[in-house]
Each structure stands twice: as C-alpha cells, then as structure tokens.
Amino acid sequence: MLPLNDSVWLVTGIPGAGKSTVSRELAGGLPGSAHIEVDVVRQMVVSGYLVPGQEPLAESNAQLELGARNAALLADSLMDAGFTPVIDDVVLLRQLARYREVLTRWPLRLVVLAPPVEVALERDRGRLEKHLGGRFARLDAELREQMLGLGLWLDTSGMSVVETVDAIARRADEALLSP
C-alpha cells in the first residue's frame, strides 16, 4: 500500500508519457487525495499566456516556473488540509527547484515516466485532445540528462496504467527525494 498523507507526489515525463492518466489513477487509489494537473494551473493565465518554448523564451520559461510554484503552493495547502496531492508536470531541474523551495515541510516523491520517445509519440498521436509530443520530443534527452538519478524511473512502454501504479506503490521508497 502507498504511504498515505506523508508525501507530495510529483509525476513527470515528456508529453505522451502518461503523466495525467497515471496521476489520476494514483490519486484515485489514495483516500483523501487530489490530482493537480499543472497544464490546467498554467492555463489559468488568460491574457499573455505562452505555451512552453514560445517566444519570448524568457517569459515562456518564467511561466513554466510560475506554474510549478503555484502547483507547489496548492499542494502545500492540500497537505495542510490532510489531502495527498499528486502533481503531474513536465519537470526539469529549474521546475524541480521551485517545488523544493515551496514544499520544505513535506517529503517529496518524484516519479519519472520514461518510456522510449517513440512510445510516447505514439501515445500522443492516439490522444483525442492535445497533441504535443512532436513539438516536445526533444525534452526526452533533456529529461534524461538533467533528472537521471533523481526519484523513481519507470519505462512504462510495456505497462498498463494499473501496472504502472502498482509499480509505483511497490517502489514508493525509490521515489523519495532527499531533502
């Protein structure tokens, strides 16, 4: 069984890796939990919103960090209220730093969904809504370069959503980041 209400969960990976689906399933298996989809938090900016990588790049990057900070603040508030937050976000070291700055009172568990990029691209093509994989496939190399060795890494290419969540539950200790 997963540790209950002892940690904030952060699920990351490139677009198409399964972050939102796995995060919802993970949260659904925990009593008193919440799913924080950072794309939704970021899109609360109505006027002036920039998609990741859009020019001006400095502003786009600032919005990515703002999304991470706001998701962390929300997670902190949920933890205070006794809910286990499960955040899904595309996280590199700069965004991870924002989470760690805000979430100093709680253990943070990082799960990196890391199927081969071809698998993530195929999953992305099969989605009914947003299709982002092609634009952000380059993030796979950045993710592996910057984040390797942090948290629990799972190649989910041969795993169902339920099998992925089961693997996360079994290996929860590997996801715990040191303070």
Explain what you see.
The chain is α/β, with parallel strands linked by helices. It contains nine helices and five strands, in the order βαβααβαβαααβαα. Strands 2-3-1-4-5 form a five-stranded parallel beta sheet, with helices on both faces. The radius of gyration is 15 Å and the shape is globular.
Oligomer: single chain
Shape category: globular
Rg from C-alpha positions? 15 Å
Please bin the fraction of helical residues. Answer: 40-55%
The low-confidence parts are none
Discrete helix count: 9
What is the strand and helix layout of this fold?
Layout: E1 8-12, H1 19-28, E2 33-37, H2 38-42, H3 57-80, E3 84-88, H4 93-102, E4 108-113, H5 117-125, H6 133-136, H7 139-147, E5 152-154, H8 161-170, H9 172-175
Helix pairs in contact: 1-8, 3-4
Short description:
This protein is α/β, with parallel strands linked by helices and 179 residues long. The chain has nine helices and five strands; from the N terminus they run βαβααβαβαααβαα.
Keywords:
179 residues, alpha/beta, five-stranded parallel β-sheet, 9 helices
